[in-house]
Amino acid sequence: MFGAGSRGPDAVVSNDPFYARRKSLFFDEDPVQRAAARARWRDELVALVSQGRHEQADREFGRVLGLPEYRFHGVPKDDRPQEQFAADGLVSKVAGRFGGREEVYPPEPSELRYLTWAKGALNLGPGDVVVDVGSGTGKAIDFFGMFTDAKRVYGIEIEPDFAAFANRHAAELGLHHVRTLNTDILTGCLPEDVTAVYFFEPFGSTEGNDAVGTFANNLVEVGEHRPLKVAVKSANLAERLQESGVFSLRDEMSFPYVINGEVKASSWKLFTSDLAAGP
After folding, report:
1. What would the pLDDT profile of 104-159 be if each residue is shown by its tens digit?
2. What is the second-level CATH architecture of the domain 83-277?
């Protein structure tokens, strides 16, 4: 794949069916043409998502960008294999039963339907710095780096191999304002200039570790002093933010998905600190 083993557009084999599109999106020397190509492709992907063809949109996005293919959407966390990205040399070393951190879930890339909603809800402008907590191979940060005006995009990823891959991949694509930090958010801090957070349930609380409560406290501490927007898929974290007295619910959306043959809903919520709410 492009992101896993090459360096720049010329390293892509000539028979790669996605070469021309990738080159127009990332390597066209004319920034106006490059921006126009991204806008056209964004509209195509959004159209697929709006038509309910979100799986097709995800496949195209991943293949054009050269991201590792993921086949386990809808599979329970405990049943996701350690080798889910092994073909790309990426194996979970920290998460769950694989590495012993039971509060950390195996990486799962965000679906484009979630990212499309979050893009609109977060309304990222040129003054924004967005953080994806548990960014994995970098799908969400690549998306925000390509399709929003955010001045900086950070991923925070505890798995070292995944963080290294995401950084190498973003650099190959020329997304120089996109960077992954290999750190444990539960023992560290958010980047000091963060204005927006994207949280696709990368960890949960356990009996011996209220991980969600720790992170909620970190968000509240930031939100008490400056504006902060949070797009979250986690009922536990959403409840903590709602009860904090610092954040208010501004938007929400549910997406159906099938797990073990049963239809369930993935619920996303947007919170803003009162300082971000405006008059």
Report:
1. 988 889 999 999 999 999 999 999 999 999 999 999 999 999 999 999 999 999 99
2. 3-Layer(aba) Sandwich (3.40)
